[in-house]
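Incident log, structure service

09:12 report received: a user says their structure output differs between two submissions of the same chain.
09:20 pulled the input from the user's history:
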Amino acid sequence: MGTHLVQTDGDFETDRSVSRAGAVARVARVIDYLFGVLYTLLLVRLALEFFGARGGAGFVKIIRDVTDVFYAPFRGILPTDATLGAHIVWPLVVAVLAYMLLHAGIRGLLRLVARG
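09:34 re-ran on a clean worker, output below:
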């Protein structure tokens, strides 16, 4: 089976590189979705902590249980501040930022793989 040329945006590429780029794009979409879910869960936890949600409430327990594995490496890294009844959980902020950097690094690696 030979290699065929495929025209994409005025450029000619082999069909093999086009299929690799398509596969990498699908993987990137899945990774973006998973990181989006992670960001959402961590930010919900941050908001619940900020507003002082009761730890015994079912929803709060679920969010804590789901996010604990992702929050654990950052727990205790910085102190939590309490101002006028609001709690700023700095380790959660650090966790979100760290996962954003990891996400950006993975996306950069996928771009390199897509280019071949």
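09:41 both user submissions now match this output. Likely a transient worker issue. Closing.
09:42 reviewer note: Helices lie at 15-50, 58-71, 90-115. The first helix runs from residue 15 to 50.
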